[in-house]
Write a structure and sequence with these properties.
Length: 281
């Protein structure tokens, strides 16, 4: 008798639970009780994952495969448009990393293709590299010639010492400078001449002897130099009246300076005892 009572109690309870589950299923699938924004409803249109890969609470992907939590819709490989469904793994920005322009990483200090300007000499990677024409190089973060020369160190070595594109006497910085083994070899207007014998540059650059007159070489204890010949006539001497024609021997009939004021700019006056005075560089 006690056993019947137990069955009588269990059966109504089972029926009540079955009814509750049945009602819940009806409500779950009744359009009146579904929230379209949540994509509820099993396999219906509202339950499919969006094209961006977001996962409905109980839905399937457009291809029919369940979008498992943690997997991206594209198959797990992140791409430019590979947003994953809810609960999925974060997609990598842009997928695989690509090399930058030229494959060089500027932040790592990779050198530029060239170091063409003086401004780049501040970069350590440009040290010793060309920074301009005519042999200019980056030296100690400055654009300079090898050795740091800023002017022609020699006007007769055939080398562009200061990297300005001109050599020896062609460089204006060499004007009046010695350009040969003898002291009277001078750069005059871009050409190396001997001022002890050149009638167009006699004793000094630009000092031209009178027409038909030579530049006489005198080389004695007072020095090597040239004097324009004058045939006893003062007016034939360039720079007259400060320069006169000497008539005394030795070395008569040559032009000689009377005093220091007769010397061209850049020259020093030499007062010669018993001989013609002169000026020299």
């Amino acid at each position: 008798m006690a056993r019947r009572t137990s069955i009588t109690r269990v059966v109504p309870l089972a029926l009540a639970l079955a009814t509750a589950f049945s009602c819940n299923g009806i409500l779950d699938n009744d359009p009146r009780y579904l929230d379209p924004a949540l994509a509820q409803g099993g396999n219906g249109a509202g339950g499919a994952t969006s094209s961006g890969g977001s996962l409905g609470p109980a839905g399937q992907s457009d291809g029919g495969n369940t979008a498992d939590a943690g997997a991206s819709e594209s198959g797990g490989e992140s791409g430019a448009g590979g947003a994953v469904g809810e609960g999925g793994a974060l997609a990598g920005t842009g997928g695989k990393s690509s090399a930058g322009s030229g494959g060089l990483n500027a932040a790592a200090g990779a050198p530029p293709a060239t170091c063409p300007t003086p401004a780049n000499c501040t970069l350590a990677v440009c040290d010793g590299k060309s920074c301009g024409d005519h042999g200019l190089k980056c030296i100690e973060k400055k654009c300079a010639c090898a050795g740091g020369a800023t002017t022609e160190t020699s006007c007769s070595d055939g080398v562009d010492n200061n990297c300005d594109g001109v050599v020896d006497c062609a460089d204006k910085k060499c004007e009046h400078a010695q350009c040969g083994s003898i002291t009277t070899s001078r750069c005059c207007s871009g050409t190396c001449v001997d001022t002890a014998s050149d009638e167009n540059n006699c004793q000094a650059c630009g000092t031209k002897c009178a027409s038909g007159k030579s530049c006489r070489l005198i080389n004695d204890s007072d020095g090597r130099r040239g004097h324009c010949e004058c045939a006893g006539t003062n007016s034939l001497c360039p720079g007259n009246p400060e320069v006169i024609c000497r008539n005394e021997t030795p070395n008569a009939n040559v032009c000689a300076q009377v005093e220091a004021s007769a010397c061209p700019s850049g020259q020093a006056f030499v007062d010669v005892t018993g001989g013609p005075n002169y000026c020299h560089y």
